[in-house]
Amino acid sequence: MTRVVFLLAPRLHLLDLAGPAQVFSAAADLGHTWEIGYVAEQEDVTTAQGIGLKAATRWPELAAGDLVVVPGWRSPSLPTGPVFTRETLERVVAHHTAGGTVASICSGADALGRAGLLDGRRCTTHHDLQDELARRYPRASVVPDVLFVQDGSVLTSAGIASGIDLALHLLAVRHGPYVAAQVARTMVVHTRRNGDEQQDSAMLRHRAHLSDAVHRVQDVIDARFTDPLLLTGLAAGAGVSERTLTRRFTEATGLTPLRYQQQLRLEHAEHLIGQGATVESAARAVGFQDARMLRRLRARPAAD
């Protein structure tokens, strides 16, 4: 029996907890030996979403093969004071010292930092907190804009839903990728993402504008990015001229419609390659006629 213990902080995010808990619960339903426990410093735990939770205040006996997970909590920035007492953090450190695995989700990385578990390690957190985490723990190496990072037996993930990716990764490590795929399918998770994938996609990064016409064109490109899309048809669908569309699109997103489509293709191709596809097959799957353009796009600097 492998035990996973979630250490709950006040005002924790439900999905930070529920997503990974569902992963391990689904694995247990499929016959794998996972036992889930919840501990906190107080029996009654408030959540950021207003639902109260009950947790044990006494830690169970942990073995080296067990896992401690610290979900994140609501805060626009990392807390100025400790969320957990020194005694609680020492329990987490003791588990790690004994050979156990420790993981965090979102702002839970701050607890690992206070415990000294991020010193000399690569780690990550939610993109809104990355810079602050790096300033607070200068001995850590904060990796920006990735879903999760594993450095030895310490794992850290980005915000909210990335906890599911982290938990699926742990299942794949413990039981193999087939079991992780089984659980993902049970949970109706579209795909199991790699840790080094970006926290937000091009579909989200370039939506912070107020142009309805540009949003309509983005909807078309998002849905049909593998197709050859002519500027003439995109402009007609938006009810503007080609020149006007190009100007508005560039003002709103910083990209031309073609460059936006290329970014979508590149992101999807990178995901396929991360899952084991060749560059040639990934290029064809996302709409390129051959792999030459994909190779050129992959070779460009990230800021290009």
TrEMBL record:
InterPro entries: Class_I_gatase-like (IPR029062), DJ-1/PfpI (IPR002818), Homeodomain-like_sf (IPR009057), HTH_AraC (IPR018060), INH-QAR (IPR052158). Keywords: Transcription, Transcription regulation. Residues 215-304 form the HTH araC/xylS-type domain. Gene3D superfamilies: 3.40.50.880, Homeodomain-like. The keyword Iron does not apply. It holds the Pfam family HTH_18. PANTHER family: ARAC-FAMILY TRANSCRIPTIONAL REGULATOR, HTH-TYPE TRANSCRIPTIONAL REGULATOR RV1931C. This is GlxA family transcriptional regulator. It comes from Kitasatospora arboriphila.
